[in-house]
Design a protein that fits this description.
256 residues, alpha+beta, Alpha-Beta Plaits, four-stranded antiparallel β-sheet, elongated
Length: 256
Amino acid sequence: MFTAEVSIQIQQPEHEEQSDHAINTLLGCLRMNGQTLGNEWPIAKKRGHFLIYVMLPKKDSMEPVFHKKYVQRSIQALASAGLASPVVKIIGEDPYSASADNCKQRRSFILFTNYVSVESPLRCGDCFSPVPLYEIPATNDEDYCNVISWQSDYQSCDTLQMNCSTGERFGTSQISRLDSSLSKRGVEICAAIEKSTGVPTYYYLYRSNGRSSHQEQKRSCPSCGKSWLLDKQLHDRFDFLCETCRLLSNIAWNVR
């Protein structure tokens, strides 16, 4: 990921009361288009400019070629709020985040996130690096709202189970069970991505507790009931894979 400064000049100060809505609309559209990551955008006002700090999947993520309909509209709307078009300056690469995928050919995708992840929830199945969402066809009208919303909900549930307090059982159930509301949405998203890209797309089912390592290895796919234990762990994380049902999982963490 890259940290960037987005500078927006105030051209008509008399319309400044409209600037808050215009800027927040732009930031929301950029997020739902996968061009920026996360939902926190520190903003400062300095010398007739608004300075906004965002995280980008790649160095060129803010290039106009990646703007879809809603981003284009929100940039055009800045003028009516007395603002100029945004100017982007890359500050530097985030040393603690995963670099975006650069594979020339992707043989599979994995929908994956967790409570601390800021990166795109779509991963390359070959290298497990995050894939910027704007590099695949839109999944919801002209953006990726359904993917971003799923990611936000998943991270909320994962936080509940990690905190081991309020809502732990609910959070764990949502990220572990194939029949949970969260998983159903995730599986639908995977199917839509596979349909639009032609690339097999897998959904990850988290596994927290099991009776023993031996019993865990005997687990069958929760969808088709067939054996799905891998001979070798995938990406140092996944022990199970069902090609038919497009599912991944792990041996329970408590018996590893």
